[in-house]
């Protein structure tokens, strides 16, 4: 069995490579070159020269051949451009989900097939298991709940899961670092970036203006009744629930409740106004491959670090003749949730099993 290891230069993918080799696979290491990092700092996931060198050194130490795949055009098209488009429409995207969908488990999986590999391996903290009764593959949370990355993997299909290995799914981060140190990996204690790889300093608006090569105009702050109460910097600076960085005092604390891109307005209200009991998610992927026949009870997460919340979920028929069941869902929460944000993902769970997910609208 051959495996292609996606190696970022960080400790997680390095240990994933080590464990896959020890499991008896013939391993090939690779790094994706995703963008020109002229003004970016080193990051585990950029494919910058430093990160690529770290990945290559680990691959060499493990006796693995190593490739660098230039995927800059695809990354710009599928991740960066969609990121810019989303913010310009007043929604808040999660580019890591799109990178997983189109790069790691899209183009990179195709590279694996071309190299004759049976599996593709990443350093995600999640688990893949096959249900002995149904034969279907299950995506489960990583056992280290503080590192679990199942939320950003909801787009995986049965065909993809059959060819994926997540060697770190049953480990904690300290255990991973200990394994890396025992192997003598230089990146055993390498710090983790908490930022989006192409936004290394967290300044989304500056990156959007740079890549889009245009300015985004100022506009009106309005209250819930439509009254103009101030001037915002441009809609790309804001997300639902935000209260810091509004740039002016209003006499009372205000929160972003809605962004109206058509009117170039940011709607402000109280903290209570950003709570909602329901959400709709589109482009929904059911990991089993089959949406339920009717409503189900489960738990739902509407942002990466949120604890799952109990909810009732109803599949929504997607066209006039009633076909297309499962393309979207309506989620009714038992308790109102704060700052349900268009562009983010709604992911459903049954215990530690990911049922599926989609994009909030």
Features:
29% strand; SH3 type barrels; globular; 361 residues; alpha/beta; Rossmann fold; Elongation Factor Tu (Ef-tu), domain 3
Overview of this structure, please?
By secondary structure, the protein is α/β, with parallel strands linked by helices. Helices cover about 25% and strands about 30% of the residues. It has three domains: about 180 residues, HUPs (Rossmann fold, 3-Layer(aba) Sandwich); about 55 residues, Roll (SH3 type barrels), CATH 2.30.30; about 90 residues, Translation factors (Elongation Factor Tu (Ef-tu), domain 3), CATH 2.40.30.10. It contains seven helices and 17 strands. A hairpin with a 5-residue loop joins strand 8 and strand 9. Helix 1 crosses helix 6. The protein is globular and about 65 Å long.
Q: How would you summarize the topology of this molecule?
A:
Elements: E1 2-6, H1 11-22, E2 26-33, H2 49-61, E3 66-70, H3 72-88, H4 95-114, E4 119-121, E5 126-130, E6 137-141, H5 158-161, E7 164-165, H6 173-183, H7 204-212, E8 219-222, E9 228-232, E10 255-260, E11 265-269, E12 275-286, E13 296-301, E14 309-316, E15 328-338, E16 345-350, E17 353-360
Parallel strand pairs: 1-2, 1-4, 2-3, 4-7, 8-11
Antiparallel strand pairs: 5-6, 8-9, 10-11, 12-15, 12-17, 13-14, 13-16, 14-15, 16-17
């Amino acid at each position: 069995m051959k495996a292609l290891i996606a190696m970022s230069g960080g400790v997680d993918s390095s240990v994933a490579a080590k464990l896959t080799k020890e499991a008896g696979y013939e391993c090939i290491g690779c790094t994706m070159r995703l963008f020109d990092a002229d003004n970016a700092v080193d990051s585990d996931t950029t494919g910058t020269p430093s990160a690529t060198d770290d990945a290559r050194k680990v691959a060499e130490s493990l006796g693995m051949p190593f490739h660098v795949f230039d995927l800059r055009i695809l990354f710009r098209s599928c991740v960066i451009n969609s990121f810019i488009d989303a913010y310009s429409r007043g929604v808040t995207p999660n580019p890591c989900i799109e990178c997983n969908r189109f790069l790691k488990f899209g183009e990179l999986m195709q590279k694996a097939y071309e190299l004759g590999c049976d599996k593709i391996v990443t350093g995600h903290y999640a688990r893949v298991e096959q249900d002995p009764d149904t034969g279907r593959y299950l995506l489960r949370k990583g056992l280290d709940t503080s590192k679990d990355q199942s939320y950003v993997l909801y787009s995986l299909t049965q065909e993809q899961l059959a060819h994926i290995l997540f060697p770190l799914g049953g480990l904690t981060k300290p255990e991973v670092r200990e394994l890396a140190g025992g192997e003598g990996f230089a990146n055993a204690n390498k710090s983790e970036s908490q930022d989006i790889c192409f936004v290394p300093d967290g300044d989304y608006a500056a990156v959007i203006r740079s890549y889009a090569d245009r300015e985004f105009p100022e506009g009106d702050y309005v209250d819930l009744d439509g009254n103009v109460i101030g001037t915002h910097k441009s809609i790309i600076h804001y997300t639902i629930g935000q209260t810091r960085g509004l740039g002016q005092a209003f006499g009372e604390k205000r929160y972003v409740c809605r962004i109206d891109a058509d009117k170039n307005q940011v709607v402000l209200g109280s903290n209570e106004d950003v709570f909602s009991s329901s959400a709709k998610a589109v482009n929904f992927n059911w990991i089993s491959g089959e949406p339920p026949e009717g409503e189900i009870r489960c738990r739902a997460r509407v942002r990466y670090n949120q604890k799952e919340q109990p909810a009732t979920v109803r599949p929504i028929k997607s066209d006039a003749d009633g076909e297309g069941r499962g393309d979207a869902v309506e989620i009714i929460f038992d308790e109102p949730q704060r700052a349900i944000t268009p562009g983010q993902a709604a992911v459903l769970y049954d215990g530690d099993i990911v049922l599926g997910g989609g994009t909030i609208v």
